[in-house]
């Protein structure tokens, strides 16, 4: 009690009924107050007062949403609330420390590892299925046509979901520049990867691209201060070894164009770090909407540029003119739209709710699912080495969860 005759004392961590850690201030008695304010009032049967003039912002969410005077405040709205005035007798260093503790507590409470892992597995399942469909239809569509039509199917669905959630009140993201940058990075990721395919074998391009968990772990350590344990790095390299066993690229398959899937991997890793750090509080539906709008804009611009090229250059998966679409093509495009809908929302949810290095390890599951789709759609039976590679990928995921 000494040293704090007025104002608030140190902030202590207490466990609430749900077993979580909560920050609660300990307000000291005034000279004319024989008992701390809310203890005396609770004993007398009154409600717990919200002593803005005596405590700082280091309170738990339940207290804020109970009798704070803000009205109906949701947990998601908490970071945007103005900080109340603290007692002038509370040292600035203590205020900053408790504010940092509250931010760290919110981040810790936001992690949901089972949700993150389950979502990323479902995401790569959907994306691998979509890529298998693209492989089946690549002779019918140009990539920009897929970008535009696929996203034009998805956008009304996302707008409908947002309208139903917001009850007709459309709200733009709080961090528009970061959301836009994230969307452009993901579009650039796909463009770089597809630009490499005419010049690389599929196995070489995929092997270069699936260095992405390495970049995710590296960027996590560099930019957000995550400590990657030895088991974490071991999980990344075991998973990458499994990818190499499945793809088995030869040295002659690589050339200067292999830099493109590497750039693609770095762009994806950077976008997921942004998802974790700058876009964590954004609605995943809104992030998916921004991404699909970016697909439409980039695809339309690319189509306009291709229209200006000579006829002799307009051919292939990247530069060919748009093809006519019949009922079967529209069915294929609807399936592609479903895959990107699941993938774009799922990636946002996964990296918002789990450490990027851990979630990134499960991105390797894409290659295992690709082998399965190859068996289903193209009668490509995996051999013993490919099966070993899939086992290594599964082992990497288990090791990532246990680290």
Q: What does this entry look like structurally?
A:
This protein starts with 7 loop residues before the first strand and ends with a helix. The protein has 403 residues and is mainly alpha-helical. It has a two-stranded antiparallel ribbon with strand order 1-2. The protein is globular and about 55 Å long. The chain has 16 helices and two strands. The longest helix has 27 residues, at 327-353. The protein has helices spanning 37-43, 61-67, 92-110, 113-137, 143-166, 176-196, 202-209, 212-223, 230-247, 259-277, 284-307, 316-319, 327-353, 356-361, 365-378, 384-402; strands spanning 8-15, 21-27. Mean pLDDT is 76; it is low at 1-31, 33-88 and 96-109. The protein folds into two domains: 8-106, no CATH class; 113-402, no CATH class.
Fold blueprint:
Blueprint: E1 8-15, E2 21-27, H1 37-43, H2 61-67, H3 92-110, H4 113-137, H5 143-166, H6 176-196, H7 202-209, H8 212-223, H9 230-247, H10 259-277, H11 284-307, H12 316-319, H13 327-353, H14 356-361, H15 365-378, H16 384-402
Antiparallel strand pairs: 1-2
Helix pairs in contact: 4-13, 4-15, 5-11, 5-13, 6-10, 6-11, 7-9, 7-10, 8-10, 9-16, 10-13, 11-13, 15-16
Low-confidence stretches: 1-31, 33-88, 96-109
Question: Span between N and C termini?
Answer: 42 Å
Instruction: Kindly report the average pLDDT value.
Output: 76
How many strands, what sense, and barrel or not for the largest sheet? 2 strands, antiparallel
The count of strands amounts to: 2
Number of domains: 2
Structural class: mainly alpha
What is the overall silhouette?
globular
Helix tally equals 16
- Biggest sheet strand order reads 1-2
């Amino acid at each position: 009690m000494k040293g704090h005759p007025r104002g608030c004392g140190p902030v202590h961590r207490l466990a609430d009924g749900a077993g979580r850690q909560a920050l609660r201030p300990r307000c000291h008695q005034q000279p004319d107050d024989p008992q701390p304010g809310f203890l005396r009032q609770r004993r007398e049967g009154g409600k717990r007062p919200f002593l803005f003039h005596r405590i700082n912002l280091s309170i738990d969410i339940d207290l804020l949403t109970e009798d704070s005077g803000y009205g109906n405040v949701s947990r998601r709205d908490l970071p945007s609330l103005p900080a109340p005035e603290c007692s002038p007798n509370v040292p600035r260093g203590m205020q900053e420390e408790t504010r940092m503790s509250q931010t760290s507590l919110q981040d810790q409470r936001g992690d949901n590892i089972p949700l993150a892992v389950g979502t990323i597995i479902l995401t790569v399942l959907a994306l691998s299925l979509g890529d298998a469909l693209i492989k089946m239809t690549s002779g019918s569509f140009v990539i920009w046509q897929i970008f535009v039509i696929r996203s034009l199917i998805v956008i009304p669905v996302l707008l409908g979901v947002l309208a139903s959630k917001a009850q007709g009140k459309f709200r733009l993201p709080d961090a528009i520049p970061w959301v836009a940058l994230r969307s452009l990075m993901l579009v650039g990721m796909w463009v770089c990867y597809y630009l490499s395919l005419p010049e690389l074998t599929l196995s070489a391009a995929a092997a270069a691209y699936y260095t992405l968990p390495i970049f995710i772990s590296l960027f996590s350590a560099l930019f957000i201060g995550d400590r990657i344990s030895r088991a974490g790095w071991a999980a990344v390299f075991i998973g990458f070894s499994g990818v190499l066993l499945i793809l088995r690229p030869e040295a002659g398959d690589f050339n200067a164009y292999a830099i493109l899937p590497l750039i693609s991997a770095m762009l994806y890793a950077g976008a997921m770090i942004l998802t974790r750090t700058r876009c964590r509080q954004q609605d995943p539906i809104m992030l998916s909407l921004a991404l699909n709008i970016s697909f439409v804009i980039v695809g339309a611009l690319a189509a306009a540029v291709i229209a200006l090229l000579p006829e002799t250059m307009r051919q292939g998966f990247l530069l060919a003119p748009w093809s006519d679409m019949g009922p079967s093509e529209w069915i294929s495009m609807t399936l592609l739209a479903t895959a990107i809908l699941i993938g774009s929302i799922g990636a946002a949810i996964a990296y918002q709710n789990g450490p990027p290095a851990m979630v990134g390890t499960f991105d390797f599951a894409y290659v295992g699912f690709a082998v399965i789709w190859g068996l289903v759609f193209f009668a490509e039976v995996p051999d013993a080495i490919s099966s070993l590679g899939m086992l290594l990928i599964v082992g990497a995921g288990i090791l990532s969860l246990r680290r």
